[in-house]
Design brief:
The protein is mostly beta strands. The protein is built from 9 helices and 23 strands. Keywords: Signal.
């Protein structure tokens, strides 16, 4: 279920055989009505007021990506026919960056909109199921597994939480640096609950500042999730190979990740599917952050609370997660510190998401940990065996040479070890930069 490696695998698998053009993606099936087209078209790029006005030179850039057509729940597509889930699409797009000549990101927030700029909400049947933002460019890598190429550095589910790459209450001496040679890719899994197709846009709000020589640090985004780096979870029997629950009440524990960095922990998030109660991030077996699922919060509550975001929030049925809490400024991390997550579920209390045939859909446990590190340390070699603890767990076996894939072909060759996400219903949608 590793997004980063599997996305590349998906991309490779679909690039030659199933390239779907932008036009095709936004075309409704014959006879379908598409809503979201009336009432004007919101701009693609907009400067809006940043809520962090205490930071000198800060700018909030709102960027719209798409359009994507959410299929009607009656539409037969890859997802409905092979995955048994109606109204869903999975798309990877090459997207524009919020700056063209380099900048530093201090916060990102994701949202979903209709064509005319009104928010697309779960209350009207439009789900932002998942979205993951990747950077590809010189020196980029997945810090969670040490795989070079794609850096998954931002993710949002329908909780639409902000992510932080710096302490926004302090002087900005760190952040996620974007360089000239970087390319952005956005993976989105979006879902429609209605028998009417809808045209939507993914929206990312970036709070950015100019990169300055005074910034001696940079923030590294570490992706932690169930089946960390393709390694089986240390708990057994909770989930099948497709990550469908085999029990109603369980705690799924991941293979540990060992920090290759000395630095400071800026932020950590939690993402679960319905049925989840909380996701706990442990540092050296002590609770670092207990992110709690809130079933009573209005969906998109974080967004609604952001100044200038507007939009209505509607209370959801208590069977759906409306918000996940997160932690900020958690203190120091040292090289060798061990991290693992526990995704806790109670499907007796909160029914999980179901496929069309009524069986339970897969569940997830994802956390992104932002660590601010000295610039020179951010480029330190990452050894897969060290970051996954194999070196420690297998008593020196990590001394064996382990070839880290350097090319897409080599990465594909590791498919068995890194795993392939089952719903590889991905289309590549090239976009002009
Ligand atoms: Cu998810």
């Amino acid at each position: 279920m590793k997004f980063s490696s599997t996305l590349l695998l998906q991309a490779a698998a679909t690039a030659s055989a199933a390239v779907v053009g932008r036009q095709a993606m936004s075309m409704p099936a014959p006879g379908e009505t598409v809503i979201g087209r009336s009432g004007g078209v919101a701009p693609e790029i907009e400067n809006v007021k940043s809520p962090f006005s205490n930071i000198p030179g800060i700018k909030r850039v709102k960027m719209r990506y798409g359009p994507y057509t959410l299929p009607s729940t009656k539409t037969k597509n890859f997802e409905s026919q092979l995955l048994g889930v109606s109204g869903m699409i999975d798309v990877i797009t090459h997207i524009k960056k919020p700056c063209t000549s380099g900048c530093t990101v201090v916060s990102v927030l994701g949202d979903l909109e209709y064509t005319n700029g009104t928010r697309a909400l779960t209350s009207d049947g439009s789900w932002l199921h998942h979205s993951v933002l990747f950077t590809n460019g010189p020196g980029r890598r997945d810090a969670g597994c040490g795989i070079p190429g794609m850096d998954p550095w931002f993710s949002t589910g329908d909780e639409r939480n902000p992510a932080y790459y710096a302490d926004v209450n302090s002087t900005i001496d760190t952040g996620y640096h974007i360089n000239d040679g970087d390319n952005f890719f956005l993976y989105s899994e979006l879902m429609n609950m209605d028998p009417v197709a809808k045209e939507v846009y993914m929206v990312l709000y970036y709070d950015i500042v100019p990169t300055t020589p005074a910034m001696t640090k940079q923030t590294v985004s570490v992706w932690l999730e169930l089946n960390q780096c393709g390694m089986p979870d240390t708990s057994r029997g909770n989930l099948n190979l497709l990550q469908q629950p085999q029990k109603n009440v369980f705690s799924e524990l991941t293979h540990p990740w060992y920090s290759p960095y000395n630095g400071n922990m800026v932020y950590v998030s939690g993402h679960e599917h319905d049925g989840g109660t909380n996701l706990v991030i442990y540092k050296n077996d002590a609770v670092l952050c207990d992110t709690k699922a809130n079933y009573n919060a209005p969906m998109e509550s974080s967004m609604g609370a952001m100044p200038g975001m507007g939009g209505s929030t509607t209370a959801q049925p208590t069977s759906s997660i409306g918000a996940m809490t997160y932690c900020r400024n958690m203190g120091a991390v040292k090289k060798g510190d061990q991290f693992h997550i526990s995704a806790n579920y109670n499907l007796d209390k909160y029914p999980g998401m179901k496929k069309d045939d009524g069986s339970l859909d897969e569940v997830m446990g994802i956390s992104i940990l932002m660590i601010s590190v000295p610039k020179e340390e951010a480029a330190a070699p990452i050894n897969f065996m060290e970051v996954t603890g194999l070196n420690k767990g297998l008593g020196g076996l990590g001394q064996l040479p382990m070839k880290v894939p350097q090319t897409l072909q080599e990465l594909i060759a590791t498919g068995g070890r890194f795993g392939i996400r089952k719903n590889a219903a991905t289309a590549i949608v090239p976009m002009a930069m």
